[in-house]
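This section describes the prediction task in plain terms. A model, or a person checking by hand, is given the sequence of a single protein chain and must write out its three-dimensional structure as a string of tokens. No templates, partner chains or ligands are provided. The sample shown here is typical of the held-out split.
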Amino acid sequence: MSGAITPADGAAYWLRWQVFACGALIVLPTAAAAALLPRLRRAAAPLRATDLWVPCWARLHPGWLLGYRAFALTAAVALLVRLLVTHGFSVFYFYTQWTFLLVTIYFAFATAISAHGCWVYSKKSLRKADESHGFLNVDVENRDISTPISGESKKDETIKMVSYYEQIVNEKRAGFWGRCMQIIYQTSAGATMLTDVTFWGLLVPLFYRDKFGLAMVSDGMHSLNAVFLIVDTILNNMPFPWYRMAFFVFWSCTYVTFQWLLHACGGISWWPYPFLDLSSSGAPLWYLGMAIAHIPCFFLYWLIVKAKHTHFPRMFPHAYARTS
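The expected answer:
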């Protein structure tokens, strides 16, 4: 629109009331998350080191989870490299690429920690391995061993398996890098849901339908990000405490702040997403809507994890073993 005020107009743009209203919608959630996080974190159960690399499936060797994470990391890096070669670093103007980079970082952490866990696992004393057939064979609440071991051949098969539930009380807590991995995991989960729901539910139908069509997602990022994480969730044994939604809020607020600084410094003259534009009188409503959308998007993934813990034990009583 020819009469519209743009960031290039300088102070006239940044002193509009919409800017202050939208700024409040960024600062207030960030401040609330920062204030509540320490209190909620103290009440949560500690994260165990083995939660990071032990699968939640009985008889499934940790090497399978390591293999999947290495595959996902390789595929994610290949997609990012392809995108950077084709479009350059300007792709990181978009929240989608921020999120996909975060997912890639998660799989880098997860692969490294799984590799270390498998190495530690292979070095452990296995004197109690013949007490159960396979890895994670019982439910943690009742410790019901339903498949006894008989014969030397079965003892040989399980000689490299550890009786996890016998050691769980003495299991050490996750260290700094392990906690970072879980934070990145949960932040990626929320950001992925927000990215995909916003793109497929809002941008494609309302903004990109005629101008861009579906060519913008030919690289698959708006689908593969969720696929990579959900498959990892199905395999892993990591808890998903709801209070870490705070880091998801920090992540999104950091992205919006980055966009504001980029426009204020004249680094870019267009908004990657139409609802970020501050020139419209309806901008605060868009910002409020996107702020509220963080809640259902994060809890959508939380429900996926909850459904896993609720339904899988019923569907696979002898194969699924929840320990967190």
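For orientation: Residues 80 and 101 are 8 Å apart (CA to CA).
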